[in-house]
Write a structure and sequence with these properties.
The chain is an alpha/beta fold. It folds into two domains: about 5-80 and about 380-425, Urease, subunit C, domain 1; about 80-370, Metal-dependent hydrolases (TIM Barrel, Alpha-Beta Barrel). Helices cover about 35% and strands about 20% of the residues. The chain has 16 helices and 17 strands. A hairpin with a 2-residue loop joins strand 2 (about 30-40) and strand 3 (about 45-50). Helix 5 (about 130-145) packs across helix 6 and helix 7 (about 200-215) packs parallel to helix 8 (about 235-245). It starts with a strand and ends with a strand.
Length: about 425
């Protein structure tokens, strides 16, 4: 079994056994200076202060194992980011809508003109599964370059039975063919297709009676999601779909309160959603509801940035005692980027989160939003060895500070104990 020893680490982040961080505890990032990290096979075998390394090595029979040493002098080592909200299976970009936004059209206005999700649906329906797979594989590698080791991927650009299942089959191939930990979500209730404009109940029936059962029968989905917001799906429709998903074993996730106070947070919590995501429109009532739940509030600051809409009130949420996660929302219409490092910068600059809070939100809380906190998100013996090593930097605060560096900030990425990025090149 292979061994990787990372030694002389300037600062090791999240060096602790933790399942999530909430409220004031999000200010602690579990930093350990002058440290080592030992990886055996796919798992974290040991970690600690450099002074304790000889004792740790003495426990191993190095004569029977190949040891790879990495000198991390001046570098920060962190668990990989867990990106718990993406839409990276899509066909084609939407830069024409980008120009429309610059001219002053809103997200809702673009959607009413046949743009937005319906635009992506037309393109996806015309694409083959192989074309979608190759494009999505490139995006996964891009995201790994930014330090992401776990990804949730949603459907929702198919809007027909065949095309929603096509998207989910692409996600299944990504799960099978990459070392990234991937969760899949059926988001058939992403928008109302043009052909169902006057037949909402028929489309919801299609989701409930055909899409959900077939996705489950093929083992294609982990979660069921609904876009519960102004101009999309109502609270009542959302409840119907989530209840149907639950009957087939699909746990709920929710797009909520991006465009208005939609009731999405409340219906998500009522159905024990693993996470409620977006939350730009969140007030005292929504925070109180979340405080009484185990649902992870997940914020998508790059979406608010790109759409030029108000940012979610992260400061109020955290100060109230809530945990929050952050994710990229990588998609062609409202967040065309998988750069989690930029998301961290936005979280600090516009959500008023401290660097430690942002890093917790992208690591252990992101893992919690994917139900992966027992295996990912922190440095703990026995957890999967998904970690990244920065280039030499002055402190871990430099990670969100240096938004212009992007993937150049990260020198090495290790997924499941295997080096998949070194000196800027991602390969698997």
């Amino acid at each position: 079994m292979s061994l990787i020893l990372i030694k002389n680490i300037k600062t090791l982040l999240q060096a602790r056994d933790i399942s999530y961080a909430a409220g004031q505890k999000m200010r602690d990032i579990g930093a350990l200076d002058d440290a080592f990290l030992l990886i055996e096979g796919e798992k974290i075998a040991d970690f600690g202060a450099m002074a304790d390394l000889p004792q740790a090595l003495a426990k191993l029979n190095l004569t029977e194992k190949a040891l790879t040493e990495i000198d991390a002098t001046g570098r920060v080592v962190s668990p990989c980011f867990a990106d718990s909200h993406t839409h990276i299976v899509y066909a084609g970009s939407r830069e024409n809508e980008f120009v429309d936004k610059i001219k002053g059209l809103s997200y809702e206005e673009i959607a009413k003109r046949g743009g937005g999700i319906l635009n992506s649906a037309k393109r996806l329906q015309a694409a083959t599964e192989d074309e979608l797979y190759q494009a999505a594989l490139g995006r996964v590698k891009e995201m790994v370059g930014y330090g992401i080791g776990a990804i949730e991927i949603k459907s929702g650009y198919g809007l027909t039975v065949a095309d929603e299942l096509k998207m989910l089959r692409v996600v299944k191939r990504l799960k099978q063919n990459t070392p990234v930990t991937i969760k899949s979500t059926l988001l058939a209730a992403h928008a109302l297709p043009e052909s169902y404009r006057n037949r909402r109940e028929d489309f919801i029936s299609l989701i409930i009676n055909e899409m959900i059962p077939q996705a489950v029968a093929e083992g294609l989905a982990d979660y069921c999601d609904v876009f519960c917001d102004k101009g999309f799906f109502t609270v009542e429709e959302t409840a119907q779909i989530l209840e149907a998903g639950a009957r087939y074993g699909l746990k709920p996730k929710i797009h909520a309160n991006e465009l208005d106070f939609s009731g999405g947070i409340q219906v998500g919590v009522a159905h024990k959603a693993i996470s409620v995501d977006h939350l730009e429109c969140t007030g005292d009532e929504e925070i109180e509801v979340l405080m009484e739940s185990h649902t992870m509030p997940t914020l998508l600051p790059s979406t608010a940035f790109f759409l030029r809409i108000p940012y979610p009130p992260a400061r109020q949420m955290i100060d109230s005692g809530l945990p929050v996660a952050v994710a990229t929302d990588y998609n062609p219409g409202s967040s065309p980027s998988g750069n989690m490092l930029f998301v961290l910068s936005l979280a600090c600059l516009y959500l008023k989160m401290l660097p430690e809070e942002a890093l917790n939100a992208a690591t252990i809380n992101g893992a919690r939003a994917l139900e992966l906190e027992s295996s990912l998100g922190s440095i703990s013996k026995g957890k999967i060895a998904n970690i990244f090593i920065t280039n030499p930097i002055s402190s871990y605060t430099f990670i969100p500070y240096s938004f212009g560096q992007g993937g150049q900030l990260i020198d090495t990425v290790i997924l499941r104990g295997q080096i998949v990025k070194k000196s800027g090149v991602v390969s698997f």
